[in-house]
Amino acid sequence: MGLKKLTAALALSVSLFAAGAARATDIEVTHWWTSGGEAAAVAEFAKAVDASGDHWVDGAIAGSGDVARPIIISRILGGNPMGATQLNPGHDADELIKAGLMTDLTELATKEKWNDILRPKSQLASCTVDGKVYCVPVNLHSAQWMWTNRKAFTDNGMEPPKNFAELVADAPKLKEKGIQPLSLAQGWPVGLLIGDMIVAVAGVDNYVKVYKDRDLAMASGPEFGKVFEAIDAARKMVDQKQVTKQWNEAVGLVVNGKAAANIMGDWAGGEFQVAKMTPGKDYDCLPGLGVTPVLNTGGDVFYFPKNKDPKVTEAQLKMASTLITPAVQVAFNLKKGSLPMRADVDLGAANDCMKKGLEILDHSTAVFPNDVQMLDRDSINQINDLMTNFFSKPDMTTADAQAKFVEIIKAAPKM
């Protein structure tokens, strides 16, 4: 190639690069995915958005959703919206939608047939207000899992437990060996454990009756009395001096063998993957605490606050579409520990824990709403506070805790 042609070609490539760069739009994305497994997963979303021609500007907020949600909502209400934000399916964004501050995704959802390709239906339903779609579900998380370190048992002459009752039976021997039977983190993980206990002991139908239908007779009756007895067994296994600040720290105690088990959602799987551990060999994941395999329809969704810049709006819609493409769904969810929102994806690389979840999702009727889809956030926080007190105060009886629980359910507003 002659010098003039080479110079012209270089000039053209530079101009095309500049044009592409000029078209790229920054999208600030707020979320609370900061643990090892979560960071690995969110990097897949960032990579996909950048590959689409726009730029993911990471706005991670350290701490839990309880810390991040007020910050996110305050920014939007204060007129300083981000380009996109993670929230959970439920009612967290209702006020923002009513105020006209969230981008309507209905046209995109209709064009791409989200109602046909996303499952279960409850996830998209949680994004829909007055017939309009305002968020995109990106994964299905379930909370009902017990995670155990196999070596904590086998190295001490015990078989790894197949359910919560077997863990309770093994607890005295584990303590003799200096191993904490059950790890726990403060705050919302306590509430998660309680919900898991209700489902495992009282059953899915009774859980929904109390949380959704406000069945006070059930909440105060013998079925829920058994639940609080099981919770009492759990608190006797928890060393209060070892209660951690963050959920991933409690999971980390199981990963490194200092604790035998933890009750946590399937996102804990990402922490075991980061540690390069293999399910069935190094650890076990037991849906429904090993009692009854179930899934609740929790997860994560993305909202896109309204923006006056049409380029940002265009980038927001492109991002919403990108997050649920098959390849991106696989890349993200394999690292997050969650289940993809689509059934038409290649899951050849899925580990045993994801396969267990998919089996329940595809073939079981024991799939039910998440707590925030049935109960308001304030009532959930009250339950978390109550159970935190129950765990930290051995003199609080199961009857007292159950009575206070009933009062919270009674006072909860209808959704």
Question: In words, what does this structure look like?
Answer:
With 415 residues, the chain is of the alpha/beta class. The chain folds into 2 domains: 25-140 and 298-362, D-Maltodextrin-Binding Protein, domain 2 (3-Layer(aba) Sandwich), CATH 3.40.190.10; 145-296 and 366-411, D-Maltodextrin-Binding Protein, domain 2, CATH 3.40.190. The protein is built from 20 helices and 12 strands. The strands form 3 sheets. Strands 1, 2, 3, 6, 11 and 12 form a 6-stranded mixed β-sheet that branches. Strands 8-9-7-10 form a 4-stranded mixed β-sheet. A hairpin with a 2-residue loop joins β4 (128-129) and β5 (132-133). The protein is globular. Residues 1-21 have low confidence and may be disordered.
List keywords for this structure.
D-Maltodextrin-Binding Protein, domain 2, 2 domains, six-stranded mixed sheet, alpha/beta, 415 residues, single chain
Cα gyration radius (Å): 23 Å
Return the domain count: 2
Mean pLDDT: 92
As for the CATH topology of the largest domain, it is D-Maltodextrin-Binding Protein, domain 2
Number of E strands: 12
Alpha-carbon distance between the two ends: 71 Å
| Subunit organisation of the chains | single chain
CATH architecture of the largest domain: 3-Layer(aba) Sandwich
Based on secondary structure, the structural category is alpha/beta
Helix content: 40-55%
- Please report which band the strand proportion falls in: under 5%, 5-15%, 15-25%, 25-35%, 35-45% or over 45%: 5-15%
Q: CATH superfamily assignment of the largest domain?
A: Periplasmic binding protein-like II
The CATH class name of the largest domain reads Alpha Beta
Unreliable segments (pLDDT under 50, ≥5 consecutive)?
Answer: 1-21
Number of helices: 20
